[in-house]
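Entry 14. Two folds queued back to back today. First construct below, sequence then structure tokens.
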Amino acid sequence: MANGADLVGRSHQRASVLLRRWLTETHTPVAEGELRVRIASLSLRIDVVYASPTGAHGFGTIRVLDAEGEHVVAADPALLAAACSADARARSLPGAPINRPESGSLVEWLLHALPRREIDPLPYPEDVVAVARSLSNAAEVQRWLTSHVEERMLPEMLARGGEDRAACTADLLTRGVLVAIGLLGRRGVAHEEHLLAELARRLTALAERNPGVADLVEHWLTDPTLTDLAALNGSELRYRDESGAVRVRPVRFEVRNPLAPEPAEAPGVPVPELDGFTLRPIRVTGADGGPDVELVHRWMNREHVAVNWNQDWSLQVWRDELDKQVSGNHSMPCIVGRDGRDVGYLELYRVRPDKLASCYSYGARDLGVHIAIGEPDAIGKGTGSKLLRAVAEGLLAADPLAERVVAEPNVHNGASVGAFGKAGFAQVAEVGLAGKNSALMVFERSRE
């Protein structure tokens, strides 16, 4: 019979697994120290004792907070599972598979898993985890890494030939050797950064000797993101199969590639010329920020903007935010005018230093746009889609080396998604971000 300490340990283990998955699948930034997140209606404060480049974070106490931000109780895995399930459903559209009654929920998986003492809704390969738990020093790790690459990965890569690259990546890399590297790092057996560098060297040598795997290896070593499998967040998730049995059917998503070298610094954002509109970068002046800051603050506190941006902040907060933006080269906040008056707010940005960079395989000079039509009487007249088309074309003209302009409106904001579509953007994916699921909208440079 398990004693109380065993039960507490297993409870923390299960809660940690769920939390790691949620943080990864929502692309939530993690650093050592205190981390606060909100999952559905559940507010959490987490002591991050180990921040992992592969997502294998280590946690101390995971605390549930009350409305005043005070510690209530340690997070129970059942409560966390319910919150993750509610969060995933709320993030997705009502008609998505995850919201269909026949698809089941994460809570059903938990009830099914408890008697079996199952910890993870999408467990990693048992042999990979067992080996990683058995290694105790750097010499053993090096020997294992060499044999794993040569004797396991190479034969499977050759056998799969031209099979779907995303499937190969998930099966052999993100749910294979990177799992072991993350576990070894969390256990303190070896530094993940060193192991990732060693893996990269071995894969490079492997590709040189075996040209048939060179394309796949190059993808693993250079692309900014890699394919993984989600179990907690994704509109296509199911927790029951066609027979009604509890069985997690995961969905693919992209994660930051820990093997890729740090990309070169992206250039600043160009100032585009807009057909039919005027545009001016925002100026921050004086203690209160000046007229541009006041205008953005007023727009952001209007109901039709606040409901989608969730940035109905005070004037001082907006002053600090815009001052931070204009002082850097990641993004450029702008005021847009039409017919002689100011009508909207734009944030133009480079994707590489943005949160979106961990969500898709971006190009080095990809540009992005956030838009808010601030004046109510400019809404519903096609202003948004015309502006977005002008912005996309203007940005690509201003930076001839950029291949695309992207955006990430909330999937629930049908008007915004529709405006991007009318402007020539195509929805290529749904991506999880902290606080929302977004439609990844892409405007490609014409090849004509």
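Second construct, same run, same settings:
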Amino acid sequence: MKSSHRLLETLIRNNNTSRWYHSSNRQRKETLYSTISPMGDPDTTVTPVLDGWLQKGNKVRVAELLRIVHDLRKRKRFAHALEVSEWMNKKGICAFSPTEHAVQLDLIGKVQGFLSAETYFNNLRDQDKTDKTYGALLNCYVRQRQTEKSLSHWQKMKDVGFASSALTYNDLMCLYANIGQYEKVRDILNEMKRNKVSPDNFSYRICINSYGVRSDIEGMEEILKEMESQPHILMDWNTYSVVANFYIKGGLKDKAIDALRKAEQRLSDKDGIGYNHLISLYARLENKDEVLRLWHLEKSSCKRCINRDYITMLESLVRIGALKEAEEVLKEWEASGNCFDFRVPNAIVIGYCEKGLVEKAEAILLDLKKGGRTPTPNSWGKVAEGYLNKGEMVKAKDCMKVALSLHVGSKGWKPNPKVVSGILNWLGDNGDIKDVEDFVGSCRRGVVTMDILMYHALLKANIRNGKEVDGILSSMEADKLGEDEETKEILGLRHIETD
């Protein structure tokens, strides 16, 4: 089942096309946003930056802070957006209206969970409990699939007269989509119309999605036709891209291309998000010409591309095997002056690995390292996997050791168990004792739990070199790892080695 995050990403709600650009151009005047923007690590606090800005005698404008919160939310830097919002509130820079409370409530739900959002809502003054704050809490419940709480809160909204907008009905449709009850989505759409609430673009997109995920193309087309016939609906690229997505999944290439053309006709200038989606969909159709054509259009329309645009383009080119073109795009990015974002070169690193060009992938990582950049453990792990697939075990081992060393203290990456076990098996059969001990040590420092495969590698290496293994067996017992059939087979090698 798709998560609510995935669903809302597919059915993009906000088509605001404003874009912030970040470059190393030192001639530009420093602003509060330009100071906060490069702080991409969500674990890095921005409060000292905000305090420091004031201490330097700089002024802060409410409009600028609200714009920063808005943009951080768009870029999914929710923890930082919440910090800025809370800082504004604590400093008394702005008296929060229900709108600001709703934004903060939504951010609390995203960062801390629905229970914290619930507490924030309950502590609001009665005059701040409006349709906006009620709606923000409903959205928190829906996002975290709290069905009973969502329906109970929905009823409260009905009781106080806050359930008469398309937005609240959309949240309820999202709820049913999130929990996989897609058949109920159409029922909510029908209820909206019965209650004289006009469905908006998002209402129809959720309904279109509910038919698409069930592979009901006929039902999807019926809703699309109804949407196109509504005089109050201005058809947008989002809807046609969702339709194109399901046509692609259904193998209906011609219909997908027709939908993509309709989507492109509705793109506005500087809409990088829209271009990125269409580029990705054409890549799934393996249509390199259209991918490149749209990329040139995007660069012309948006004037300057941000890192997200480069990532999308590189991933798309890698998907269709256009590695030469991907290399050219990577060079464009390097010359763009954008802030360094490792995800950009990582897209082509992964592409090289998937195509078996592991040496080229490793060369990029080494070049980045020489330039003072630290590649991610994920990148080195992919290169290690590539070398393992090619049977180059020494290189696989060395690259995985680098990945594990980078993983110490970091989050979000776990080494591929198949790669680790493959290296351990090879080391047990071929490596010397020091190599095995070093790799096992790297695994343990990289927060990989000591398991029986590591002990097996140590046992085999020691037995091959005529060493005693009583200490290893004692450690196994201390770690509550009993001897299995493979352990017994390995121990049986002692007699063979001594014969």
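Quick look at the second one. Residues 1-10, 12-27 have pLDDT under 50 and may be disordered. The two ends are 58 Å apart (CA to CA).
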